[in-house]
Amino acid sequence: MTEHDPLARRFEAERPRLHALAYRMLGSAAEAEDAVQEAWLRLGRASVPGNLAAWLTTVVSRLCLDVLRARRETPVAEIPETPDIAGSGSPEDEIVLAGEVGRALLVVLDRLGPAERAAFVLHDLFAMPFDEVGPILDRSPATAKKLASRARLRVRGTPSVPDADLTEHRAVVTAFLAAARGGDLAALLEVLAPDVVRYADPATLPPGVPAVLRGRAEVARGTTLFAGRAQLAEPALVNGDAGLVLAPGGRLAGVLKIQVRVGLVAAYEVVVDPRALAEMDIALLSSPAV
């Protein structure tokens, strides 16, 4: 046993927490692992800190901030492509991890500025006091609190419908998603309005499938084609009302804008155009969980 073994064991005990933190900061399992590994390398070159957990948290957080800031400065053409809507471009473990953390949460976090994202993740998701968050961001605790508050407002969003309507719409969207995931034609028929209309970007459809479908039976059959993709969908607040985000690896690939009328889906639109997605207001339907 070398003199470094006890330190290595202490680091490995911290690794799961550090990776969880970095993943929520970056939304990429590979980049999160890189940040954690770099923290280990830096630890090997530093004097052993008195508070190892706090030191590692600071290092990993600042490494993640560097990555987030670099993303902001990278021309769009150089940013890796978003995984395709069916998820085939994303590793299976990344898809599973995104599902565990919450795809809608990752989508919303990805829209925050680096400092806002870090402040929200550290305080709201990892319960760090602002007296500790501030120095990590090179900001005062008061400023860190403001950053987290601003991020929290964006994460929660602002409903455009009354609370009672939103509750009903959430229930309908959840039932629709469950039926779509199971490819359950009977359940879809129950949640769709008789005159329902489905609009879809042709890029999301197999050849020969019309972009517009009308009527409960046609839309239900067309929705069964969505079963595989529905596994990667999650309810979210879309433009102030209940809808669905498609985010295979936690990166937004599409949105279902859903209109609910009298407890049924009256219409839904599948949107995948990056410019249209960028203009949408997306937030959580419920409070995020760590």
From TrEMBL:
UniProt domain RNA polymerase sigma-70 region: residue ranges: 11-72
InterPro entries in UniProt: ECF_Sigma-70_Domain, NTF2-like_dom_sf, RNA_pol_sigma-70_dom, RNA_pol_sigma70_r2, RNA_pol_sigma70_r4_t2, RNA_pol_sigma_r2, RNA_pol_sigma_r3/r4-like, WH-like_DNA-bd_sf
Keywords annotated in UniProt: Sigma factor, Transcription, Transcription regulation
GO biological process: DNA-templated transcription initiation
Gene Ontology terms for molecular function: DNA binding; sigma factor activity
Assembly and interaction partners: Interacts transiently with the RNA polymerase catalytic core formed by RpoA, RpoB, RpoC and RpoZ (2 alpha, 1 beta, 1 beta' and 1 omega subunit) to form the RNA polymerase holoenzyme that can initiate transcription.
Record protein name field: RNA polymerase sigma-70 factor (ECF subfamily)
